[in-house]
Write a structure and sequence with these properties.
Rossmann fold, alpha/beta, single chain, six-stranded mixed sheet, 41% helix, cytoskeleton, 211 residues, lipoprotein, globular, G protein activity
């Protein structure tokens, strides 16, 4: 899909193996990568640089096309991730509900966004909710702690499961609704993603598969 057809740029940020790619796969293609446990990271390919997908969303009488960027979580791709979130109107900052360190990494990306992208609305997203539902002892990130933090930074909290699909479509629909509530947003954003897409294609050639 060409950049000229993207109305809104959405970027996903967070720690490597924090569930970003699985979340995008569930949203864009309504699928989950098999029944293997999340913890067995050998069954998942880490994103290199970034991966891109687009999807149309019906919001009332409007049809928006969301351009969704899944960035690499590895710290060695940190500088590249900054390029991909440039100009994003929404950021889904992901953290693994079973990994406390992933929430600290989420705080890092929130600070980056607040310093560099003032116009970007932040959505905190706890992933792998199915794991904490099946065994509450696996939860390492407290819900009330995240909601207190979200209130402090004027963000929202969504806890999701890519395995079951819980709250994922609701999250992206809320993002689209928030964006569409200001008609000027669509006018300003159309055609702005070409530079990012060109960079993505260049990196695909350099590194191979990016998703």
């Amino acid at each position: 899909m060409g950049a000229s057809r993207v109305d809104m740029k959405v970027v996903l940020l967070g720690k490597e193996y924090g569930g970003k790619t699985s979340l995008v796969e569930r949203y864009l293609h309504d699928r989950f990568a098999g029944d293997t446990p999340y913890q067995n990271v050998r069954n998942y390919n880490a994103t290199i640089g970034a991966a891109f997908g687009a999807k149309k969303v019906d919001i009332g009488d409007k049809v928006l096309t969301l351009g969704v960027w899944d960035t690499a979580g590895s710290e060695r791709y940190e500088a590249m991730s900054r390029i991909y979130y440039r100009g994003a109107k929404a950021a889904i900052v992901c953290y693994d509900l079973t990994d406390r360190t992933s929430f600290e990494r989420a705080r890092f990306w929130v600070n980056e966004l607040m310093k560099n992208e003032e116009g970007c609305k932040i959505y905190l997203c706890g992933t792998k909710k199915d794991l904490v539902i099946s065994d509450k002892r696996t939860r390492e990130v407290d819900y009330h702690m995240t909601t207190d933090y979200a209130e402090e930074i004027h963000a929202e909290v969504h806890e999701t499961s890519s395995k079951t699909g819980e709250n994922i479509f609701e999250l992206f629909t809320k993002i689209a609704k928030d964006f569409a509530s200001n008609p000027e947003n669509i006018k300003k954003e159309r055609d702005k993603d070409k530079e990012t897409l060109d960079l993505y294609e260049d990196n695909k050639k350099k590194f191979g598969c990016c998703g």
